Amino acid sequence: MATVDPASLTLAAAMACAAGLVGCFAVMRRMTLAADALSHVALPGIGIALLLRIHPAFGAAAALFLGTLLVWSLERRTRFSTEAVIGVVFSASLALGSLLASGEELIEALLGRPGALSRTEIVIGLLAAAAVVVFILRAKDRLVVALVSPDIARTAGIDAPRLDLLYLMAFALTVALGLRYLGALLMGSLVIIPAVAAKRLASSLRGMLAASVAIAVFSTLAGTVLASRLGRETGPLIILTAAACFFLSLFVPREA
Amino acid sequence: MAAFLEVRGLRVRFGAREVLRGLDFDVAAGGSLAVIGPNGSGKTVLFRALIGALPYEGTIRWAPGARLGYVPQKLDIERGLPLTGLDFLHAKASVAKAPREEADRALSAVGLSAAAAARPIGALSGGQFQRLLLAFALIGGPNALILDEPTAGVDEPGQERLHSLVRRLQAERGLTVLTISHDLSVVYRDAAQVLCLGEDHVCVGAPKEILTPQLLERLYGSPAGFHVHGHG
Questions:
Q1: A256 in a domain, yes or no?
Q2: Where would a tag sit more exposed on chain B, N or C end, judged by fewer CB atoms within 10 A?
Q3: What is the mean pLDDT of residues B73-102?
Q4: Partners of B14 in the beta sheet?
Q5: Is residue A168 one of the residues assigned to a domain?
Q6: Partner residue opposite A151 with nearest CB, options B72, B86, B95
């Protein structure tokens, strides 16, 4: 049973902030499936890192970086078949990852294992989370214009392909942040579920961003506390809390 | 007057199909060009090439300092999107580094109420959404408007209002206006120059010279009639 240590909890909250913000645009851009699949690209990186005896987070980050570039360039070349391309990349990554890592390591990579983090890990994690949050808040207007119409974005002087790449990078970085805590399988869900619930609850951009961050942070903190009380795994409890928030959001009446 | 837009030998192809086969035309600064032609003749493709959204062969040269305001053809917006009209306009103001008040000015210019602009864009009617797109195009001080069927889905009084708004903006700000329109009466009245795109026929000229019954029949394949509105 993991004890709840304040530094790790701060990092978890920062990671949840980043996930909540990044998720809003993934949901609005209708790339939830793509986003979820992208998170699994971390697996072969973790496998290779374990083979080479380097920190798995570096392997995961490197794999996510390469996977992001791959998805981005495939998306640009074969515009219409993004989902198919992602399906292939996802399955191949999962296969390669399970080949490279042993059973226990694989479960850990998929589901995460929050434990004591070193000071360096916490500092790097906080910096990465801050980078994602700052990027989304600064780019949100450009992202909004580009998601309504890439053609309009172009005439407004927005370099949409570059913005896409930066966004995917922010997404990949967010997933890398959550790997230790939630694992590849569940981190994609922490990005998507709060944003989907927030989309139902909000009627403006600001409202959606705020609701998504609130749900992501609440789920993370509540899941962590519950896990420590019940002596259970943290990741699944975080995702179950987020999913509960989503189901509750279905009962909130919507205007218009 | 110097050309604001110069197009030479413009070709666009999708695989083996050539949609635009060598277009040549100029648009003067402050001038207006209406593009007409049957469905599938490449009107939208032409506009998307002009804004650089499609690969093309040939030359498209905008005058230095051209700032384009683009209103695309009907957009497919997800209805549940939690973005209000104001979110969208403020985003443009921020991208164009214009003050936020410009969003309010653009709204009143197109006659969209603040209450409508505060609603999610998916909840707007077709006509309200077109006005929002025009307001969006006006933010940031464009000197050219590129309008792809800007009045599609707008009711008759609303259409007239948008047309007179564009005429007024053009007169006040010296905007260059490129429009795709199916309303030949409006084209006849408002455009200084008409570009007609047909399957096997392309022509450019003044509306009075171009919009003849013979040409329209050739272009649309059946007699197309239009009546000339009084100016006012």
A1: no
A2: C
A3: 88
A4: B17
A5: yes
A6: B72
